[in-house]
């Protein structure tokens, strides 16, 4: 599911003339928290683990980045979210993979203790459909309906 679309600004750029990797990771972490909140009725989530963060290609100032998130694992108190980031070029309507990673988020109460996730099944189903549609488009297949 598409979570966010942002433009990379000059102030986001590091010494190499591209988006600083730590900035990208922070943005992805926010997307993971937003995704967890959209898929549940819980108010608070914390990041337990980030793994397989891969930088596929650089992001330059003025480029538009899109964040796509899918839930790859649902637990009792945690969920694993796969995030893919792409540059979107509106003039050509094309995409380029730039970063991907996996974030484990834990639901916590007001005291910071883990709590059970109160899932929103309808939101998860809708997100899964959006993910399948996007993957089919990427594969060049025609989508029914």
Automatic annotation (TrEMBL):
The keyword Hydrolase applies. The keyword Phosphoprotein does not apply. Keywords: Hydrolase. Residues 1-111 form the HotDog ACOT-type domain. PANTHER family: ACYL COENZYME A THIOESTER HYDROLASE, CYTOSOLIC ACYL COENZYME A THIOESTER HYDROLASE. Belongs to the acyl coenzyme A hydrolase family. This is Acyl-CoA thioesterase. It comes from Geothrix rubra. The lineage of its organism: Bacteria, Pseudomonadati, Acidobacteriota, Holophagae, Holophagales.
């Amino acid at each position: 599911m598409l979570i966010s679309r942002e433009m990379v600004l000059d102030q986001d750029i590091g010494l190499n003339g591209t988006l600083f990797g730590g900035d990208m990771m922070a943005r992805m972490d926010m997307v993971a928290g937003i995704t967890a909140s959209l898929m549940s009725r819980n108010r608070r989530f914390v990041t337990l683990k980030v793994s397989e963060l891969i930088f596929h290609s650089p992001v330059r100032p003025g480029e538009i980045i899109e964040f796509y998130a899918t839930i790859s694992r649902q637990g009792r108190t945690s969920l694993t979210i796969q995030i893919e980031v792409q540059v979107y070029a509106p003039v050509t309507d094309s995409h380029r993979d730039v970063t991907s990673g996996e974030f484990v988020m834990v639901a916590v109460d007001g005291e910071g203790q883990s709590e059970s996730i109160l899932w929103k099944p309808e939101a998860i189903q809708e997100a899964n459909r959006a993910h399948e549609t996007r993957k089919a488009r990427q594969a060049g297949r025609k989508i029914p309906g």
